[in-house]
Amino acid sequence: MKILLLGANGYLGRHAARALRALPGAELYTAGRRPPHDLTLDLAAGQMPALMADLAALAPDAVVNCAGAVSGSALNLAEANARGPALLSDAMLAAAPQARLVHLGSAAEYGATEMGVALTERSPVAPVGVYGATKLAGSLAVAGSRLEEAVVLRVFNPVGPGAPAQSLPGRLAGELRRVGPQGRIRVGDLSAYRDFVDVRDLAEAVALAVTAPRPLPRVLNLGSGSARPVRELVRALTGAAGFRGELVEEAAAGSERSAVVPWQRADVGAAAEHLGWRPVTPLERSLADLWESTAAEGARDGAERPAVAR
Description:
Oligomer: single chain
Radius of gyration: 19 Å
Order of helices and strands: EHEEHEHEHEEHEEEHEEHEHHH
Largest sheet: 7 strands, parallel
CATH architecture of the domain at 2-158 and 195-222: 3-Layer(aba) Sandwich
């Protein structure tokens, strides 16, 4: 099976690559803006003829799109998260219509919901902010495409080894490495509830989506199925780090989305039914492994900025 992976250098993409390479008989090819990759490709600025030619030459059985942007200008977010998936869907329809497209969406597409309610794939979508809106546009382009085999995996809050500095866990881990066990750390509002899911469990879901024997629903939620207070995550990560210093919570330093979206929890029943997938990694294990993975990274990744939840 030939699998083309876009975004293999990113957080989710790196873990997805490991899971895909482990599939029996898999031939994994990667595409990205900078080498080394099998294909040089930037979906945000790519052109249809070149992408069609590359897809026709490779003739993949599946394409996994982990590419995207979580920060930047509105234009950059729109190009990466909306234009990119739309371009990919149209190019595949023309040049590789037999291939299955697995696209990674985001829980940010849902927006605010009632406390205690689990979000299903049929829940209303009302994203808060440009990031969620552009991710929704990209997911709609994939789900609404004329490809026979296309699925959006709507990912909730990933956590685990290698978490990037743009995320609360990654940034907080960097801060903890910088200040040491007796330091002082500023964080944003920690009152929100989020559905944290281990990145390795997500990677396993991607592999299952690639190899599922039957056509899949257009959208599947991927989360832990439980909502945990962000404060609980912070407590567990500082515990794993042996932190005994001062933690200063400043509501003004939090993200706009944390205030407007105080609660999110995924209903993962559809993923269990159609993929045979269940998350298996406890949050505490995810955070312990994240802390260990930062041992050689020191204080990079913008440690001076307050840690906030998306």
